[in-house]
Amino acid sequence: MFSIRLGETLWSLNKKRYWVGSIIFVALTVILPKSFAVINTGERGILVTFNKVQDLVLNEGTHPIVPFVSSVRVMNIRIQRTDVEANARTKDLQRITTKVALNWQISPDKIQQVYQQFGNNEELVARIITPVLEEIVKARIPARSLEKNLIERTELKQELETKAKQRLESYGIVITDLSVLNVTASDEFNKATEEKQIAEQKSISDKQIAEQKALSDKMVAEQELQKADFESKKAAKDAETAIARARGQAESQKLLQTSLSPEILQKQAIEKWDGKFPVVMSSNGALPFINVNAPTSNPEPNK
Q: CA–CA separation, 47 vs 56, rounded Å?
């Protein structure tokens, strides 16, 4: 009987120990992790007690907190990047797509204000950063024509960055850099531009052909002009030569006419005579032709 009661007592004690151990194990497993907050590098902790943000900001490290009473909201204060793509029409009513990248971080001294107003980092991006960037891009793109938006990307970047700082720094967001990643025109504009370039290239080619033809025609005309000038000068020279030749012949004939006399002509004829008389055919046969009465230069008149 005594042994039975002793066994029941020991069993009761062991059972109590088991339950106490179980409760302690559960408490350590559940409560202990909630008793400490671990803040990693590049983060800050917002201490919330009974759903109220406290003035204390937890820096990097491990911090004890009251479990089930206080909790910690971890905020990233590293430099982060957000890409935004926005469509807008330019000054000349051409639709383009502009993609920008914003590098930003939460100001550590305003981290409580940011959390209270917007929530964690993801909510901050969705509620503030993305809408503000889209609005800024859509407001600045129409200030330029499509060509200037494509060419003046440095000026566009500076304007967008300045506007982003003015708008976002009041929310406790520090802007470190803004980049214009891409400015893309619409498919219709790209097609029109391609057709224009083809037309310009064809126009340039036609112009070059026309210029080459005009140059060739000019060279041919110059050669023909030079040939005509040469022929004109040659004709003039030939005419001068012919005139000089005719003048010489005329003067020579005139000189001959003044220098020749009947005596000189008869003398030249005698010098060239071969001693034979000309023959005249008559009824008596061939007779020599003799001019008996040769004319004299000074014939005497009959008395």
A: 6
8 Å CB contact between 77 and 105: yes
Q: Report the share of the chain in percent with pLDDT over 90.
A: 35
Task: Give the pLDDT mean for 16-37.
Answer: 70
- Which among 42, 40, 50 is positioned nearest to 71, based on CA atoms? 50
pLDDT tens digits, residue range 255-294? Answer: 666 666 676 667 667 777 676 666 655 555 555 555 545 4
Between CA 173 and CA 191 the distance in angstroms is 41
CATH number attached to the domain at 78-190: 3.30.479.30
C-beta separation of 105 from 80 below 8 A: yes
- Written as one string, the DSSP assignment of the chain is -HHHHHHHHHHHHHHHHHHHHHHHHHHHHHHTGGGEEEE-TTEEEEEEETTEEEEEEE-SEEEE--TTTEEEEEEE-S-EEEEEEEEEE-TTS-EEEEEEEEEEEE-GGGHHHHHHHH-SHHHHIIIIIHHHHHHHHHHHGGGS-HHHHHH-HHHHHHHHHHHHHHHHGGGTEEEEEEEEEEEEE-HHHHHHHHHHHHHHHHHHHHHHHHHHHHHHHHHHHHHHHHHHHHHHHHHHHHHHHHHHHHHHHHHHHHHHHHH--HHHHHHHHHHH--S---EEEETTEEEE----S---SSPPPP-
d(CA 184, CA 99): 9
Choose among 193, 180, 172: nearest CA to 151: 180
Name beta bridge partners: 64: 36
Alpha-carbon torsion (249, 250, 253, 254), positive or negative: negative
**Domain spans of the chain?**
11-75, 78-190
